[in-house]
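Lab notebook page, bench 4
Experiment: in silico fold of construct C2
Operator: M.H.
Input chain length: 344 residues
Purpose: comparison with the prior construct
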Amino acid sequence: MDVTLLTILGIVLVILILLLFAKGVVIIQPYQKGLAIRLGTYTGQLNPGFKWVVPFITRVVKLDLRTQVIDVPSQEVITKDNSPTDVDAIIYVRVMDPERAYFEVSNYRQATVALAQTSLRGIIGDMELDEVLYNRDLINTRLRDILDKETDQWGVKIERVEIKEVNPIGAVKQAMTEQTAAERERRAAILKADGEKRAAILKAEGLRQSMILEAEGERQSKILRAEGERQSQILKSQGEAQGLRILALGSRALDKRSVTVLSLDTLQKMADGQATKIIYPFEVSSLIKQGAKYLGGDESFEPNEVSSEMLDESILGDLPDKNEIAAAVEQVKKASVNENKVEE
């Protein structure tokens, strides 16, 4: 009986010891620091790993050393130009000194948020609405500097501050919308006017170039036409001169009989016409003398012996017909040919 009681007491004692041991076990994560407080006295920091402390009389506070994100709730802020605006932000903090972060402030996260809200109101209150809208980097920098200076005594580092949203309230937002619409309409009107001006300039430039090219083409055409006419006149004159030179060279070998034959041929052609009056462009008396000579007439015949009455009667009065003239021409030609053969 005594042995059984002792066994039970031993088992209970072992269980109590195990429970006491388990109660004193503390696990510190790699990103944490532990603060041991025994009976109201700070005994030191606990590094990451398995730790055992005296249970029931020792309390361990674990602090996260990683960068933490703290959301600053949206709040209404009045700008320098009296425009109410809702502003919120995000803060990135890290605990650098666990002892001060725990012992210097009751709740560093809550204290950081409250400080950020008051600092944000002060910063935006010194700026106009337009500056707040396009100067977010300046707000972020100023707010980070203020928070970092104040939280340094708590062992907390402000790594970064970002303004998340700036939202004007009510009528201010509507006025901004109307202003933006008016500005866009103004830009559209300017762009349209500029486009029309450029189109007019290009059109005028094109018309000017077209007129210049047309005038240049017309000038070139006139120059080429004048050059062609000049070349044509030169060639025509050269042809006429060449023909005269050839005629002059060919006429050197002609004797009086040949000239007489050609004259009679001309007379024959003139007789083919329907005119009743003929004007001879050469000396008629010489022609009559030569013709009489080759027709067997008297060689002593002088043209001066032909009176004007005879000319009027023979030439203008009773004109021979073309058959008689043709016969006379043929006789003169035959006589000329026979004399040429005899001479040869």
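Observations: Residues 337 and 343 are 10 Å apart (CA to CA). The domain at 68-169 is CATH 3.30.479.30 (Tetrahydropterin Synthase; Chain A).
Next step: discuss at group meeting.
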